[in-house]
Structures are given as C-alpha cells and as structure tokens.
Amino acid sequence: MLALEFPPINEILRWKDLFPTFNKVALIGVAAALIAIVIFLLASNQDGLKAPKGVRNLAETIVEFIEEQIIMPTMGRQGLGWTPFLLSLFVFIYLCNVPGIIPIIYMPATARIAIPLVLSLLVWVVFIGVGFKHQGISYIKNSLFPPGVPGPLYILVAPIEFISTFLVRPFSLTVRLFANMLAGHILLVTFALLTEELVQGDSWILKPVGVLPFFMLMFITGFEVLVGFLQAYIFTILASVYIGGAAHPEH
Amino acid sequence: MLTAVVTRGAQIEVSFVTAEEGEGEHSIDCEFPVKDEQGHETGVCDTGPSPIAPEMKEVAWGAGAFIVMALLMRFFLYPRLKKGMDARYALIRGGHEQADAARASARAEVAEYESALATVKAEANDRVEAARQILEAERTARLTDVNADIAAKRDAANAEAAAAREAVRSDIAAAVVDVTSRTIELSIGRVPDASPIRSAVDEAMSAGVAQ
Q: How many cross-chain Cβ pairs, A to B, lie less than 8 Å apart?
C-alpha cells in the first residue's frame, strides 16, 4: 500500500527573501502591478481612434469585461465610476494568480494570505466608506435593521446582519481567494512530485503508473488557468456587489 | 510495504520507502535553520509563521503595489484609455448616424423616384391610350375611306368590265351575224335578211351566257 507523507504547507509556500523584507510573493505582487501598468500604458499610448489591436485590444477587452459583466449587472450605469478600482482589482488578482502555472515561478501570490487579506480589507474600507458617503449615519441603521422585518426579530437579525456585513465579508473574500489558490497549488505540487518519483524511481513496475499523475498534473494546470480567472472574477464581482449595495441599499 | 515519504529540505524530495523505514524523521537539509545568538545553525528547522498568518512584508509590498497601480489606473491609465475608446465610439456612432441619415435620404429619394416613376408611367399610359384611341379612330376612318375607295374602284372596274364585255359581245355577235349571213348567202346565193339572224345570234349568246 502506498501512502504519501506530505510536508507542512510552509515547506511549499515559504521562500527565502530575495533581499531583506522582499520575498517571492512580494516580487510577484510588484511584478503584477508593473505588468498591468505597462500593459495599460502601452494601450493608452496607441491611437484610440483606430481599430484596437494587440495590447490595446487586450486592455479594452478587459475594460469592457469589467464594465459589461461586472459593473452593469451589479451597480448599473451609475457604478461605472468604479471601473478603475474594479479593473485594478481584477487585473492585479489575475496577474497574482497566473504565476501559479508559469514554469520556474510556480507560485500564485494569492496562495499566501497577505495579498488576499490586503485586498479584502481595502474592499471592506471602500464599501463601508461608500455606505457612509451615500447614506450617512443611516448606513449603520439600514445595514443592521433591514426594512420589512417584524420588530422583535431585530434582536436576532441585527447581530446577524452586523456579523455578515461587517465581519464575514472581508473574511470570506480573503479565505475564498486564498484557499482556492492554495488548494490548487498544493494539488499541482502533489501530482508533480508523484510524477517525478514514479517516473524517476527505481521500480520499473511503477514507472508506467507515473503517466497517471502526469495527466492529472496537465489537467489541473489547465484547470488552474480557469480557477485563476474565476477567482479574480468572483472577488471583483463581490466587491462590486458590496460597493453597489452600500451605495444603493434599495438594490 | 512501500510508503511514499516526502522529505523536507532545500529541495522537496519524494521517495518510496518501506513502512518500517518510513518510521521516524526524514528531515535532511534545512532551508530555514534556526540560528543561535552567535549566528550558528542550531540544527533545528524554523517552521516559519503559520500559513494563514499574513507576513508583514508581503502585506506591505502587496498593498503598496496595488495602491500604486490603482492610483495610476484611476488618474492616468484608465482615463487615457477610456478617452480613446469614447472618441472611437463617438466616431463610430457618428458614422452610424451618418449612415442612417444617408440610408433615410436614399430611401426618401427612392420613394420620390418611385412616385415620379409611377406618375410618369400613369401619364405615359394615358398618352399611349389616347394615342391608341386616336390611331384606332384614324385607322377606322382610313379603313372606311379605303373600303369606300375600294368599293368605288370595284364598281368602276365592274362597270368597265361589263362595258367591255358588252362591247366584245356586240363585236362577237356582229361577227357571228356576218359569218352566218355570208354562209347563208353562199348557200342560197342571195343576201339574207340580217334581222332574224341577228335575233337568233343574240338569243343563242344569251342562252350561252345563262348556261
């Protein structure tokens, strides 16, 4: 019977600092921001009157995706002012996710909790700020005491609403992104190690069996492309929903 | 019994060992060794912070990178990109509107042309009908004239033919009377009375015509 003793998660996630206070996750985060800036800088420098192609086509596709698929369904036309923020959020998360399947790097920055936590807290601050800006102090009342609920039930509803709106939202945003990317990363490591050991091992009987984890590795690598995009999309659309809900409680 | 064991070290390794061999520690090289105050490795590996505990350096770099990017996106990159997109959309929209206007104008011209064409066709039909009626009347009139002319000519020809026929008949009758009279004269030796011969010849010729 075969068994796999897997190392602690830190063994596959922890990296030596490239220089003090700057490790691989920080490098990926900075690179993601720089790549996004360069892409949009190159795109914005091209003539906007001509038919978009190349990098401008890519940038405009992303912008339209954010506007049409995220903002319009959740906030409507009045939410288009949030496009730069949500665009930054989506692109940054996606570019932090993608390195998980890029050879040599093989590490999604979002598989560490720091970046998801930062982004979630930022979204949390933003949607609470938007709530106060649009509703004033009534935002607290509207959030904790939703209309249409019988009076006595507010004893139960108000704490639940407080926890779900002000505490669980940033927590769930963080954990959803972090846990999904971490799980994908662990799966990739697991099947890569199994393939390597089975194919390069001494046992001739087990060598052909190495094809199975290899195929799984290929499948999961492809799947991680989808997961990386999907997690960026989910995070962004939830941020949009939270901001839209804070700005327009009737929605 | 084989058991896969992943050993921890500078490079992650996995190997199959027997269950008996698999018991115990497998830590070999340590990427994060714990050092004592003099900086010497103590032989103990630093397991690092909890994987769910955020490291401040990652938080700081991640937040910094994102905020810089978001600010650039908000105040510089997105507005320039969007300005170009809006300009192009306006251009395309203007083109569409121009095309719509041109199409509407073309349709109006086509309608106008078709209306004019219908008017001209109706007018042409009227004229053709009038001309046809005029021609018909003229044709009928000419036909009548021609028929009358033909009838007159036919009557004249018939009269002329009758006159000629009568003249020929008289000549023939005279010749027959002469021949008959001469024959009788030769037979009887004297000139016969021409009247009975002429009557007999006229009667015979009339009977022949009647037959």
A: 185
pLDDT tens for each residue of A74-122:
998 989 999 999 999 999 999 999 998 888 888 899 988 999 999 999 9
Q: Which of B81, B69, B75 is nearest to A44 (CA)?
A: B81
pLDDT digits (tens, 9 = 90+) for A27-36: 999 999 999 9
Residue of B nearest to A182 (CA): B51
Mean pLDDT over residues B49-57, rounded? Answer: 79
Chain A CB contacts of B6 under 8 Å are 4-7, 193
Residue B206, domain member (yes or no)? no
Overall number of domains in chain B? 1
Quote the ipTM score: 0.91
Residue B39 near residue B33, CB atoms below 8 Å: no
Q: How far apart are CA A165 and CA A162, in angstroms?
A: 5
Domain housing A185: 9-247
Q: What is the span of the domain harbouring residue B41?
A: 2-48
Has residue A200 got a pLDDT over 90? no
Degrees to nearest 5, angle at CA A168 with A167 and A174? 110
Amino acid letter for position A107: M
Cβ <8 Å between A21 and B57: yes
pTM score: 0.72
> B-contacting residues of A 6-45, CB under 8 Å?
6-14, 16-17, 21-23, 25-26, 29-30, 32-34, 36-37, 40-41, 43-45
Residues 6+ apart with CB under 8 A from B115: none
